[in-house]
Structures are given as structure tokens and as C-alpha cells.
């Protein structure tokens, strides 16, 4: 793992420009879905099959003052990925360079990866005839060529740094040591789930920024099949139920939107 590439995100430097979001979409050819129902801002900020990275917005209190913080979210690319461990068709693979990638040709749609992921990252194309699981691929072709992922290459503030994971950990520790009054003494991703290729620095506790702080340090694959091997029938039923609920909710929203569109407008006489 000494040659594994990684990315260090310094939350204190993010200004919510969303250049990373645009670069990801352009590089990966992700088309924006034509939603018939207008989305709320909270829905727009969530990961989706056509949004592999988003910037979450938080308003929190620090030293008695209200402050805003912005958090780039995407797959964390675990060193020992639970999604790959749970995928019996080998559609998910951990590459030597660091990215955890997905091969749709091998996917059987079991969605074990979605259950196994401790960060709840993979998204499923519920409304497609031949659905896929979608998530950030960490721009494998670029990383394999020792180039930055697309998102990191356009960051104007240096909030996203790319390099050797071990070197990035040293850089993160150096920043904390040099600015103990700024950063919390925690590098998120150093140990969570056995370690991830994406690392984070913050000036406020990570739990205030939506990070999962209940993730064990032990690699998740150590647990994965202890649970999943006993649940195939339950899982199939769960998947069918969620699919039905999704289609029902989607149709209700579309009907409501159509009714509002064609509803008569009261005019003052």
C-alpha cells in the first residue's frame, strides 16, 4: 500500500465554488437528469447516479459565532473496500493505484455493495431497465498516469491535494502541528474502516459536518460476509420492496406536479 495514491481535502480551504463538481461531470460524461419535479437544495446536494461528487453546506457554531463550512463528498476509496469484498461477481475492484472501480459488465444487480459500504456511497439506477451501481471512480486513467483526479485539478484554493497517501498523511500531520489552534487533531480517513484513500482535515469536529464517526477502525471486510452470507433471500426481498417504493413515490410526485401545472388559476373579478 506504500505506493497507493490518495487525496487530502482541507475543509478550511473550500469556498463552495463547485468547480470540482463541474469537472467531475464533464470528465466522466455525466448528464444532468431532466427531473420532472423540482428538487430542493438539500436534494441537489446529495450524491446520485448522475452526481458522483457534491459539496455539502453546513452552518455551525464555532467559538460562539455562526460559520459556514463546505464539505466535498464522494466515494472515499477504502484501502480494504467493503463493496469489493461483498461483490461476489467482482464488479467492484480495488486497483493498485488506489481507486475502487466498478465494471458494469460484471454487475448482477444484487446491491450487496450498497449494504456493505460503511459510508453509504453507492447509488443504484432504480428507474433504468438495465440499472447500474454508480459512484466516483477517482478518475483511474488519470491517477494511473500520475495525474490528479479531475476534481483536484481545477480546485482554485488548493483545498484538494493529490499525491502518495503516506506523503499526504505526513502533510496533514504537519499542518495540524503547525496550526494546533486551527485544526482538530484528527485526520479523517487515516484509520476509519481500515483507512481510505481520501483524507480530510477540519477545524471543527467531523461529526458536525455529517461524517460518520461510528465507523470502526477495523477493515469492514472483516465483518462483511459474517452478515451478508446469511441474507440473500432477505436482501432480494428488500431490493424488490425499495424498487416498488421508489417507483410509487416517483409517480405520485409526477402526478402532483402535473395537477399543479394544469390547475385553474383564480383571478380577481
Summarize the structure.
The chain has 269 residues and is α+β, with helices and mostly antiparallel strands. 32% of the residues lie in helices and 16% in strands.
Give a structural overview.
By secondary structure, the chain is of the alpha+beta class. The chain has a domain of 183 residues: 2-Layer Sandwich (Alpha-Beta Plaits), CATH 3.30.70. It is 32% helix and 16% strand. It is built from 9 helices and 9 strands. Strands 8-1-9 form a 3-stranded mixed beta sheet. The chain has a two-stranded antiparallel sheet with strand order 2-3. Strands 4-5 form a two-stranded antiparallel ribbon. The longest helix is centred in the C-terminal third of the chain and has 31 residues. It is globular. The N and C termini lie far apart (75 Å).
Indicate the percent of residues in helices.
25-40%
CATH architecture of the domain at 5-11 and 75-250: 2-Layer Sandwich
Number of helices: 9
With strands numbered from the N-terminus, the spatial order across the biggest sheet is 8-1-9
Secondary structure: elements and pairs:
Layout: E1 5-10, H1 19-28, H2 41-44, E2 54-62, E3 65-73, H3 82-86, E4 92-94, E5 100-102, H4 112-116, E6 123-124, E7 133-134, H5 140-144, H6 150-153, E8 160-164, H7 165-178, E9 198-201, H8 221-228, H9 232-262
Parallel strand pairs: 1-9
Antiparallel strand pairs: 1-8, 2-3, 4-5, 6-7
Amino acid at each position: 500500500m506504500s505506493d497507493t495514491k490518495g487525496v487530502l481535502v482541507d475543509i478550511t480551504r473550500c469556498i463552495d465554488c463547485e468547480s470540482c463538481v463541474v469537472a467531475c461531470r464533464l470528465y466522466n460524461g455525466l448528464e444532468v437528469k431532466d427531473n420532472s419535479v423540482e428538487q430542493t437544495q438539500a436534494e441537489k446536494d446529495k450524491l446520485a447516479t448522475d452526481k458522483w461528487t457534491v459539496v455539502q453546506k453546513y452552518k455551525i457554531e464555532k467559538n460562539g459565532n455562526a460559520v459556514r463550512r463546505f464539505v466535498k463528498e464522494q466515494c472515499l476509496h477504502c484501502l480494504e473496500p467493503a463493496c469489493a469484498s461483498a461483490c461476489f461477481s467482482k464488479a467492484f475492484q480495488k486497483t493498485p493505484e488506489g481507486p475502487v472501480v466498478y465494471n458494469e459488465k460484471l454487475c448482477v444487480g444484487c446491491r450487496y455493495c450498497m449494504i456493505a459500504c460503511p459510508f453509504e456511497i453507492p447509488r443504484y439506477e432504480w428507474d433504468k431497465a438495465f440499472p447500474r451501481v454508480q459512484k466516483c471512480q477517482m478518475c483511474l486513467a488519470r491517477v494511473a498516469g500520475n495525474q490528479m483526479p479531475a476534481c483536484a485539478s481545477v480546485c482554485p484554493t488548493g483545498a484538494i491535494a493529490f499525491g502518495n497517501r503516506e506523503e499526504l498523511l505526513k502533510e496533514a500531520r504537519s499542518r495540524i502541528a503547525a496550526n494546533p489552534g486551527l485544526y482538530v487533531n484528527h485526520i479523517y480517513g487515516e484509520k476509519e474502516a481500515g483507512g481510505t484513500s481520501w483524507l480530510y482535515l477540519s477545524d471543527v469536529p467531523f461529526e458536525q459536518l455529517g461524517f460518520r464517526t461510528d465507523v470502526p477502525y477495523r477493515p469492514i471486510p472483516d465483518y462483511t460476509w459474517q452478515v451478508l452470507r446469511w441474507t440473500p433471500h432477505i436482501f432480494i426481498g428488500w431490493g424488490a420492496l425499495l424498487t416498488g417504493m421508489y417507483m410509487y413515490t416517483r409517480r405520485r410526485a409526477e402526478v402532483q406536479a402535473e395537477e399543479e401545472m394544469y390547475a385553474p388559476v383564480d383571478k380577481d373579478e
